[in-house]
Amino acid sequence: MDTQVNPATTMTRVPVTGETALSSALRHVLAAIRRNLWLALAIVGAALALAIVATMLDTPRYAATSSVQINDQSDEVLGADFETQIAPPSDWDTERFLNTQLDVLRSRALAERVADALSLANDERFFASLEIPTSQVTGTDAQNRAWVISLLRDNMDVELRRSTRIALITFTSTDPEMSARVANAFAEEFIQQTLQRRFDSSSYARNFVSEQLDEARQNLEESEEALNAYARNVGLLRTRDAISPTGQEIEAGTVTSTTLLQYNQAVIRAREARIAAESRWDAVRNSGLLSSQPVLSNLTVQSLMTKRAEQESQLQAARDRYLPNHPAIARLEADIAGLDNQIERTANSVRQSIRAEYEAAANAERRLENQLSQARGATLAEQDQSVRYNVLAREADTARSIYDGLLQRYRELNASAGITSSNIAIIDRAEVPSTQSSPSLTRNLAIGLLIGLALAGLAIFLRDQLDDVIHIPEDIEDKLGLPLLGVIPRASDGDALEAMENPKSSVTEAYNSMRGAMLYSTPQGLPKVIAVTSAQASEGKSTTSIAMATGFARIGISPLLIDADLRRSSLHRTLGVAGDRGVTDLLTSQDDPASAIVTIEQGDAPFDLLPAGPLPPSPTELVASPRMAQLLEGFAGQYDVVIIDSPPVLGLADAPMLASIADGTVFVIEAERGRSGSLKAALRRLRSMDPQILGAVLAKFDPGRSGNRYSAYSHRYYYTYDAPESARS
User: Is 183 exposed, middle or buried (0-12, 13-18, 19+ CB in 10 A)?
Assistant: First the structure.
């Protein structure tokens, strides 16, 4: 009863490796699929059926494809007057050029040319091929033309074959002849549009370049003088680099201008640092010592405050247990006072460090601003001396570079103006398709299968997430967050107590495994007082209590089993002893506790039992009385372990109260039992009393029924294996 256990260290867990976690997740997924197999098959079947129905109801469509070759314009030779031809582009430029041509094929301008070339705005057959009734085509010519352009773009597809220059132009409609006609029109109009665009762009470019040659030299000097005059008038410090005819820099700036930029950036960073430091100092200076965020976020302060909270908790516990003048209370109060002094010193140190940081940032900012002022004056002086030089150097170099570039471009445009050949060539004209392209039963079935599998997976996932039934042992931790103490299979003959009489049965082996876990359930070993409870009745808690008492007795640990279910006591009937005296008599009198204890002779493992006794009118008041805690403390001193068979948690206040005064609580859960949230509700009620929950026991577990056939755990290693049957609680 005096054992204090940290809930965080209740169970010693083996570290879970990545492989173990993956294996556990796979087992959980396979179990969920097995439990919901028929649901998944129904969803997939429905998706396939819908795919078949959609295929049969859909109108057949025909796709016609024409192919064109798109050559790079860089392959053209401009004439014999040029010593060299344009260098071939890189792979990246070629890919960009081809993608640009594909976008041209998808453009609205090309769709307009096709619509006008075939006169589709007044073609009823075209609208019928796209499943548009003639009665709907009642707009003006402009509206019908806009509608046709939209239909052409929506039903046309362009694809570039991998690692080639071949583009496939595909048009799809319900009329095979119309599909071929439109696909060929796209290819032909694409060539015509390219030729027209090249001619128009060449003519405009020649005129533009000719005008630029005359204005280049005049505009250069005027722009440079205006820029420098403006910079001087407004005090703008800016260096302009001279450019050689090859495009390389002659002068990359002076040391003074570079220093100015560096000092300016440094001042900005110093100002930001000073503002940030000043903000932190203002926040600390204007708030209490232990109310500012920098102080509270200090690791040392946090550690000291955590220690102080622990000491306060221990002091409160000591005050509840000892008299005010007890040495333990005085020692704890002295420790807390020392911690308060340490916290105050540490907090003052943090505050002083923030102030020092702010003062250092302010000093750095002032020094950098002085340096920046000096650099600014030096740069202004140097700017006055180099303005004329920069103007003259840049005027000569820039004028020469611009003039040479414009002259070279003008010659190229003149040479290519008369070239009318296209870089686009038709490879295959579209033929009238003989087979439909859609709908495809195979493709629709594949899509239906994928959608069905996705929906089935989603349904299984949602059903598994919303399902709070404990199917497999992994659900104990995943759904409830409790350590697993043991997995008890169903007894083959339907009676777990009879199965426990056989030391080689699977039930006995499972309880022996649970007993081993109980021996190391806390850092101090086996708790002295253990309460056994469950969410609802008939989940196996009474059988588990008897098994625990029998198991401990077999290894030489003297147990006392107490029937604390003062509403529906059953242990005395199950074990075949008289129940006229018991817990009720001891709680309502000062009788000797030994007078109500009976010894249960079970083979080589006898143990003592304290029956419930007569059913009282108010069980909750008896359980909550100080007499109950006194009895348990006395029994804990006489026996190695005291096991309390508690009533269910839901609907009753007895179990949470017993769990709060016990050293540890074992929560029994029946596998495959529908609860609709009762487990989590029971745990919330139980934890409201702040008990020490040692873990959970999964009782009446049937691997085959739970969809966990692969996870029979240690049952396959038992001496015998019991067929699944119902077990008594």
Answer: buried
182 in a structural domain: yes
Nearest to 451 by CA among 43, 163, 77: 43
Both 672 and 572 in one domain: the answer is: yes
Q: Please report whether residue 236 resides in a domain.
A: no
The answer to whether residues 142 and 284 belong to one domain is no
Kind of pairing between the strands at 598-600 and 664-670: unpaired
Of residues 667 and 386, which shows the higher confidence score?
Answer: 667
SS3 state at 33: helix
CA distance 272 to 630: 67
Whether residues 127 and 31 fall in one domain: no
Residue 556, classified by CB atoms within 10 Å of its CB into exposed (0-12), middle (13-18) or buried (19+), is exposed
Tell me the whole-structure pTM to 2 decimals: 0.45
- The pLDDT, as a whole number, for residue 19 is 64
Longest Cα–Cα distance in the chain: 127
Q: Are strands 529-534 and 484-489 parallel, antiparallel or unpaired?
A: unpaired
CA dihedral 227, 229, 230, 234 (to 10 degrees): 140
Whether the pLDDT of residue 11 is over 50: the answer is no
Asked if 67 and 49 sit in the same domain, the reply is no
Q: Does residue 494 sit in the same domain as residue 573?
A: yes
In total, how many domains does the chain have? 4
Helix (H) or strand (E) holding 425: strand 424-428
Examine residue 392 and state whether it is found in any structural domain, yes or no: no
Q: Are 650 and 507 part of one and the same domain? A: yes
Query: For 256, which DSSP code?
Result: H
The SS3 of residue 508 is: helix
Poorest-pLDDT segment among 423-427, 511-515, 645-649: 423-427
Judge whether 201 and 213 are in contact, CB under 8 Å.
Answer: no
Using alpha carbons, list the distances in angstroms from residue 559 to 137, 174, 554, 601, 665: 93, 86, 10, 13, 16
Which position has the higher pLDDT, 160 or 23? 160
Strand order in the sheet with 607-610: 484-489, 693-701, 664-670, 529-534, 641-645, 559-563, 607-610, 598-600
Residue-wise pLDDT for 271-294, tens only, equals 787 787 777 677 666 666 666 666
- Does residue 220 fall inside a structural domain? no
Q: From CA 331, how far away is CA 319, in angstroms rounded?
A: 12
Highest mean pLDDT among 23-32, 81-90, 390-399: 23-32
Task: Encode pLDDT of 165-221 as tens digits.
Answer: 888 999 988 888 888 999 999 888 888 888 877 777 667 777 777 777 777 667 656
Compute the distance between CA of residue 566 and CA of residue 612 in angstroms, rounded to an integer: 6
Higher-pLDDT residue of 232 and 606 is: 606
pLDDT at 685 over 80: yes
Residue whose token pair is 């990545």: 18
Of the candidates 484, 513, 476, which has an alpha carbon nearest to the alpha carbon of residue 718? 513
pLDDT at 531: 92
Tokens of 268: 């900005």
The structure tokens listed for 372 are 């920046």
Judge if 184 and 106 occupy the same domain: yes
What CATH code is carried by the domain that includes residue 101? 3.30.70.1130
Residue numbers of the domain that contains 117: 62-203+421-428
